[in-house]
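Hi there, hope your week has been kind to you so far. Thanks so much in advance, here it is:
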Amino acid sequence: MKLRRFTVALALVAMVAAVTTATSVARSTSANRLAGLPNTCKTFGNGKYIIASDLPLQGSLRPLSLQITQAIRLELKQSNFKIGDKTITYASCDDSTAAKGSWDPQTCTNNANGYKSVKNLLGIVGTFNSGCAEIIAPIVNRASGGGIPMVSPANTYVGLTKPTGVAGEPNKYFPSGHRNYARVAVPDNFQGAADATFLKQKGITNVYVLNDGEAYGTGIANNFVNAAKALGITVLGNDKWDSNQPDYQSLFQAVASKSPQAVFLGGIVSLHGGQLIKDKVKVLGDNNKVLLLGPDGFNDSATVTDAGDAAEGMYVTIGGADPNALKNSAGKAFIKDFKRTYKVSHLEAYTAYGAQAYLVLANAIKKAGSSTSRPLITKNLYSQSFPKGIIGSFKLDSSGDPSLGGVTVDQYVGGQSKIITVIVPPVELAHKALGSS
């Protein structure tokens, strides 16, 4: 009896040891697979290969970025976390900090350096903020194995893909000599031209411009100024607002001395944009008295949350179609699936673009067949055609820009964004928005 008990005990010990060993091997394999990923990342799935997103998941842009991550997960779930014959782990990575409440340059740098060391990372969906893209793109462009492909759902700064007059753009973002970046959002020269066209249609003859001093904010402000001047609208000023200031009443008192009919805010809401809107209304009057217009950096539910009633009547634009009003079959199916899956009634400005950016990357990976060559995947990014894309029919050109020029104008009414119109600015005006004659 004692011998039998001893034999059974030995068997149990062996079984536990085997399970422990298997678990340790599994953990080791998982750890090796994820080694190098930034500590800002949360992973989903257990695939051999990794797709990362790089977005600001803290601060005012969190609601918008969170929906982009959900859109990517929805597409992955529908394909059982596979792209072709490759199993995928999705890493949702944060490029913001709680202290800043927005994207953070050092975090973008740290994330990029982490991505460089992940050998089985096939691509990145991101970034959201153009300033962060300026940091990450050249770092991952130099990654061993031919650089890491990037597809942004929301970067709109023109200089990331085309010359702007700024020294070295866009080549300085691709130090290897080979591009690794594409986007699905409409660049800011088209958005700036559409914004100026909208003011012209509203009978506005003069405007005061404020910008947040960042790449995106300065870029869209300058694009708007160039287009406005081309349309005969007088630009009364183009000044920076300091996001570290507690309020902006003195700034708007200086603006008031110019008696503007409209104010244009070039920047993002997470840089104290809510307070900026409140003080605009406090000093200049409500948005019916002095029209207030912001680009896609203010097309975010956080604008109403942060500015409260002061946001009422403000106009904001999107570099493309409003995802709540997609009429094509793929777009309508996406809206239905997203709302059902995540129990929401309203999609943020770039939710559908998050799904589309992922699908652009996934299609490039599929076209590589059984290969995991990142240079081949990157090469496949360009000149793709999506006749049945979620955001509509479009192509990507050789520089990575979409063949979309339409810009949606929304207005905050009763705390919700309402679609007002869609403007397709003339290509000639979009060129002038770059400062071209």
In short: Residues 188-318+407-433 form a domain with the Rossmann fold fold (CATH 3.40.50.2300). The chain has three domains: 1-34, 38-186+325-395, 188-318+407-433. The chain has a mean pLDDT of 93. The chain has 13 helices and 18 strands.
